Amino acid sequence: MRFKPVIGLEIHVQLNTETKAFCSCSADVFELEPNTAICPVCTGQPGALPVPSKQMYEFGILLAAALNCKIHEYTKFDRKNYFYPDLPKGYQITQYFYPLATEGFLELDGKKIRINRIHLEEDAGKLIHSSETITQAESSFVDMNRCGVPLAEIVTEPDIESPEEAKKFLEKLRQILRYLGVSTGDMEKGALRCDANISVIDLENNVQSNKVEVKNMNSFKFVEKALEYEFERIKSQLKRGENVLKETRGWDLSTKTTISMRSKEEANDYRYFPEPDIPPVVISREEIKKIVEKMPELPDEKLNRFKKKYTLTDYEAKILTSSVKLADFFERCVFETKNPKETSNWFLTELLKYTSSEDDFDTLKIKPHHFKELFELIVDGKITRNIAKEIFKEVFETGKSPSKIVEEKGIEVIGDETLIEEMLKKIMDENKDKVEAYKNGKKGLMGFFVGQVMKQTKGKADARKVNEIAKKLLGD
Amino acid sequence: MNKFKKLTIKDVLKGEEDYVGESLKVIRKEDGDINAFITVVEQSSGKIPIAVKDNIVTEGIRTTCASKILEDFIPPFDATVVEKLKKNNFAIVGKTNLDEFAMGTGTEYSAFFVTKNPWDKERVAGGSSGGSAAAVASGEVVAALGSDTGGSIRQPAAFCGVIGFKPTYGLVSRYGLVAFASSLDQIGPITKTTKDAAYLMNVIYGKDERDATTVDKKIDFEVLLEKDFSKAVVAYPEEVFGEGVEEGVKKQFEEFIKFLEKKGVKVEKISFPELKYSVATYYIIAPAEVSSNLSRFDGIRFGTRVEEKGLLETYLKSRKQLGVEVIRRIMLGTFTLSAAYYDAYFEKAQKVRRLISNRLNNFLEKYDFIITPTSPITAFKIGEVRDPLVYYMMDIFTIPANLAGLPAISIPFGFSGNLPVGMQIMGKRFDDPKVLGFANFIERDVPVVFPWEAKK
């Protein structure tokens, strides 16, 4: 391996607090009619003033604690001045000099990716152009709904060593965000946005390229793809002995390439200075402790607990803990069934066929006690596994109890021994050659005889009994 | 003489007449000469006619900040102080003239017209709350609200011979005050008596959920009005007798000291060498905040749009509506905040600000009050001052109270020629009632004189 990428991420997370960062407007603005969740404060009306949300701080502190950061008691807001129509005040309120938290890490498959800082800030509005691109647009409109939605900006150290690892980092981060309940983490909806810095080290010649910033990647897949593209592009430039420009590039979905947006030399001077409208926010150690105590079990802890407590494989536990909602539902089902392994099997093979891990399991028609009932029907030999699967589907769709379905449909296991014996005798008469072969040692043919009975009974026969009787008839 | 013109809030509270009608009558008759009002409100409910500086937003009533760019701006909400006035039976009869966005000391930088001093109509009323001070001094209204960032209440009050009070920073909500320099701005009363100033403070002060810089403190501003302050110990900086202070003002200040001593007050001289840095400090911090606060007025987000072919041209033309002083400060602030100069200017100014604050607080541990003339000069002639630096130096005595967030009042004390001279009393943080009480202690012997009663 002659070349190695060095990647750092800058991630903006929309916090799903009840109100916006500095006013009492709702922060849940996704897909609302433009300019319907706004007030004098978030639109920067002359005379209006920002007042920071407490919940934004709580969410920020939870996030910082989950990412093992040093949380600061003394924080302050600053103004980042820049001129853009989607920014009503002409500046963004952010934390520049005294951020909420610093020096954390996120563990990814045993490796620590260091977090440089986490700070709180407000989101800007959205521009809507009358045509595809701004240059062709006859007119542009501003939707201010997003103005003032609270953001946590997470900046990593350049510890990420492959595009795939960048993607994994983001997936893990999203899982944590969802576990904490501080953000939906939906990249497609803009609740999680990521810019990446990448440079490449030529290990043979021991030189490192300039840093390139990549933007506009609105899915985990595109982060990986864009970084792969950039890695290749920078690598080939290094190979040709060319100078890699320090610049900002945007991922272009249509060409699956990155395109130069601006060179870093024309960087903005944001003229940061302390926000005079908001006094410093001082949160004592005790208050921070109180907030952190509310922290739920995090993905890694839950995974380990599931493996131990329920004796599950890593694979099973990982799937079952992929979301809090799924994990909670699993635990409630196990509480009823007292059979973690069997419950896990049904979750992995059946339940997740009809649901995805982020669904709301509380509102499902199938309830934990249905699992218990279904398992009992199987153990009592009242239904076969195959039928149980059909019943499961029906319970899932209708919410009827499994025994009710069995009763209604007249599904019952055929356990009548004389009936099974007659069927088997008939099958053996029609397949004398196979009976002969079995007796000569081809024991595998047992499956054939049982299978035939199951076929004729449409799976309703008690497989255990069929086996027993067949063995008896074949003289085993 | 119209009896209404001398009425105080206290008088109006006792009376039964249509004072709002009276006020509007006087405004109609006299404001053609004074030019105190940008907008007169003919229909307003409430009993006590008051004027509000036109950088404090009023729902449905045009609020211009005396700027072309906000000439047609109708705010969608009331400032907290306006809400409080309305709730307490005040009638807003008009919005008063100011230097554009409150930047200036003569109301000459209003984009519309110059307000004239009721004492001498060839002279300025002071600024930036010149309209409010002139409206009170000419008897057009019973009282007015102004805003004070570096002396903008006290200096025009001094020039017009009335009372002007800047409260401790954080006592009065700034919600609805169009920001000039947010860390220095404070709304306060301009009145005919200190009792009225204290009364108005009780109405407008208080913690506001919408302004994070307001403090939660219960204060009765009227509680020390009758107190005997003859045992007070006050200090004045020796720098008061330094360069740039008019002889007439110096003389009057000496009289003021003598007067206080005769009343039993102990007056001591102190050395305040940092005083001379306060103007420089102010003119770095305030423009820095201005450059940020005013960037929204670009014709796209806010303000009158001057439509041009392209976006950039539209921006440039729209911004050109701002006046020369506003542009000067935006440029200054943009420069001092830029990455390359931040440490050398803004950061250093913040340090000096803390130094000046500490020094003042130390003095006020030892003395009840610090006294100075409010302004080194009396009202100057319209158009007389051209050099911005000369302008800036006029704020030397008023700026320290803003830098340190302290309460300070200007009260009239005698004349230089036929122009009123104001004295400033500065107190400890949250000692607002004490400052008002001391001012009242003086006022008992030296009441406000109106222009039409003075011997010329």
Automatic annotation (TrEMBL), chain A:
Q: Which InterPro entries match?
A: Asn/Gln-tRNA_amidoTrfase_suB/E, Asn/Gln-tRNA_Trfase_suB/E_cat, Asn/Gln_amidotransferase, Asn/Gln_tRNA_amidoTrase-B-like, GatB, GatB_C_1, GatB_Yqey_C_2, Gln-tRNA_amidoTrfase_suB_CS
Under which main EC class is this enzyme filed? ligase
Pfam family, any one: GatB_N
- List keywords of the entry alphabetically: ATP-binding, Ligase, Nucleotide-binding, Protein biosynthesis
User: Coiled-coil region(s) at which residues?
Assistant: none
| Ranges where the Asn/Gln amidotransferase domain occurs | 328-474
Q: Which PROSITE patterns match?
A: GATB
The answer to keyword Nucleotide-binding applying to this record is: yes
Domain of life, per lineage = Bacteria
Catalytic reactions of this protein: L-glutamyl-tRNA(Gln) + L-glutamine + ATP + H2O = L-glutaminyl-tRNA(Gln) + L-glutamate + ADP + phosphate + H(+); L-aspartyl-tRNA(Asn) + L-glutamine + ATP + H2O = L-asparaginyl-tRNA(Asn) + L-glutamate + ADP + phosphate + 2 H(+)
Might you give the EC number(s) for this enzyme? 6.3.5.-
What is the role of this chain? Allows the formation of correctly charged Asn-tRNA(Asn) or Gln-tRNA(Gln) through the transamidation of misacylated Asp-tRNA(Asn) or Glu-tRNA(Gln) in organisms which lack either or both of asparaginyl-tRNA or glutaminyl-tRNA synthetases. The reaction takes place in the presence of glutamine and ATP through an activated phospho-Asp-tRNA(Asn) or phospho-Glu-tRNA(Gln).
Q: How does it assemble?
A: Heterotrimer of A, B and C subunits.
**Family per similarity comment:** Belongs to the GatB/GatE family. GatB subfamily.
Protein name per UniProt: Aspartyl/glutamyl-tRNA(Asn/Gln) amidotransferase subunit B
What organism is this sequence from? Thermosipho affectus
Upper lineage is: Bacteria, Thermotogati, Thermotogota, Thermotogae, Thermotogales
Automatic annotation (TrEMBL), chain B:
**General function of this protein:** Allows the formation of correctly charged Gln-tRNA(Gln) through the transamidation of misacylated Glu-tRNA(Gln) in organisms which lack glutaminyl-tRNA synthetase. The reaction takes place in the presence of glutamine and ATP through an activated gamma-phospho-Glu-tRNA(Gln).
Recorded E.C. number(s)? 6.3.5.7
The record's InterPro entries line, in alphabetical order, gives: Amidase (IPR000120), Amidase_CS (IPR020556), Amidase_dom (IPR023631), AS_sf (IPR036928), GatA (IPR004412)
Q: Where in this chain does the record put each Amidase domain?
A: 48-436
- What is the organism field in this record? Thermosipho affectus
The name of this protein is Glutamyl-tRNA(Gln) amidotransferase subunit A
The UniProt entry, under HAMAP family, shows:
GatA
Q: How does it assemble?
A: Heterotrimer of A, B and C subunits.
